[in-house]
Design a protein that fits this description.
The chain is mostly beta strands. The chain contains no helices and eight strands. It has one domain (2-78): RNA polymerase II/Efflux pump adaptor protein, barrel-sandwich hybrid domain (OB fold (Dihydrolipoamide Acetyltransferase, E2P)). The protein has strands at 2-6, 17-23, 30-31, 36-41, 46-50, 55-60, 67-69, 73-78. It has a four-stranded antiparallel β-sheet, with no helix packed on it. It has a four-stranded antiparallel β-sheet with strand order 5-4-2-7, with no helix packed on it. The radius of gyration is 12 Å and the shape is globular. The N and C termini lie close together (6 Å).
Length: 79
């Protein structure tokens, strides 16, 4: 089954967009739930998005330097 990893709501006072800074894994890599998956930045902070599920990083939909909005699909994970 394929799971879509989306940019979550960043908080009440946070921006609705973030920039992808760095992917910690490549397509085809095995990822574990809770491990940092991708680093993002907003105009106020930098943060890492943890992997929500254990499986294989199937496809990245955004690249480093891309701006993403809350709800955008960042990648898919195949379990």
């Amino acid at each position: 089954m394929t799971y879509e990893v989306k940019l979550p709501n960043l908080g009440e006072d946070a921006a609705d967009t973030a920039t992808v800074s760095y992917w910690l894994y490549e397509e085809g890599d095995m990822v574990k739930e809770g491990e940092d998956l991708v680093e993002l930045t907003t105009d106020k902070a930098a943060f890492s998005l943890p992997c929500p599920k254990t499986g294989k990083l199937e496809e990245k939909y955004v690249q480093e330097g891309d701006e993403v909005s809350v709800g955008d699909v960042l990648c898919t994970i195949e379990d």
